[in-house]
Amino acid sequence: MSVNQRSSTLKSREIFISCIVPVYNEETIIEAFIKHLQQVLISLSERFEIILVDDGSRDQSLEKICQLSEKYPVKVLGLSRNFGKEVALTAGLEHAKGDVAILLDADFQHPIDILPTFLQHWAEGYDMVYGIRKSRESESWFKRHLAQLFYWTMQKITHIDIPKNAGDFRLMDAKIIAALREFPERTRFMKGLYAWVGFKTIGVPFEVQERAAGKSSWGLSRLTELAITGITSFSDVPLRVWGLIGFVISLISLIYAIYIVTVTLIFGADLPGFPTLVVAIMFLGGIQLLSIGILGEYIARIFTEVKQRPKYLLQCKVGFDE
């Protein structure tokens, strides 16, 4: 679709918007969220769909959104268990039919009122419009610096440019949705996939809002797991670096061995080296275990992929045309 066609489609309110909303334990606020989102979408277009993807909620969120489908124009995908947000977003994208797809959370932290700005950039020719957090001051010092370290690491060891402080809050053109559907991997790092597909993109700064209820399920352990997934999915540097480390250690060992032999031949001294020997064995043992652990991460990813299991399973599907 050309820029003129996009602009005309947006002005005539004929653009088909698919909003994909992952839901996890949101029963107390989901109706208010849907009501607000619907009001904004009605002001933008006459054609839209709201796809709610329940990611194995432990409360009554699934039952709640199934009831709301009778009152609001929403479609429901209920995953059979908690597969994770990355997979929930994938399920929504695989069922979206719109000219554009907008991904946003149901906890009101992503400002719905910024959607017109997203669409305006799309009409100007951008294929992906993503939100950039203006500030992370609400997070702990450790979490902020861990995020900075992650983005720095990804920039150094991968060939993709992942924008800092950009999350899943974004708009994507239909051709990007089609491209993402081509990715078969089960262990998914969506921020990396968004960057990998390329196309014309632009960032829009926004202020993260307060959560309307509950607390984030993204603790340190889950964020660390996601970071490891991102690194192992888009870079083989951690594998290659251990070859370099092994070469350096071998070179140092060779130099030290030459030194020991030379000193012994010249001075005939029996060098006492039990502490040195113990330290060397422990150091080399630690290096070997660490390298095996990193290798194991990659093997685990391969093991997951070769089984060819479905990315997710549905326990219910409401509002979709069969």
What do these coordinates show?
There is one protein chain. With 322 residues, this protein is an alpha/beta fold. It contains eleven helices and eight strands. The chain has an eight-stranded mixed β-sheet with strand order 7-5-6-4-1-2-3-8, sandwiched between helices. β2, α3 and β3 form a beta-alpha-beta unit. The two termini are 27 Å apart. 29% of the residues are buried. The mean pLDDT is 80.
Structural class label: alpha/beta
User: What share of the residues does DSSP label as strand, in percent?
Assistant: 15-25%
What is the overall silhouette? elongated
- How many strands appear in the DSSP assignment? 8
Query: If you average the pLDDT, what whole number results?
Result: 80
Number of DSSP helices?
Answer: 11
Question: Percent range for helical residues?
Answer: 40-55%
Major beta-sheet overview: 8 strands, mixed
Side by side, the strands of the main sheet go 7-5-6-4-1-2-3-8
Tell me briefly what this model is:
It is built from eleven helices and eight strands. By secondary structure, the chain is an alpha/beta fold. Helix 2 links the parallel strand 1 (16-23) and strand 2.
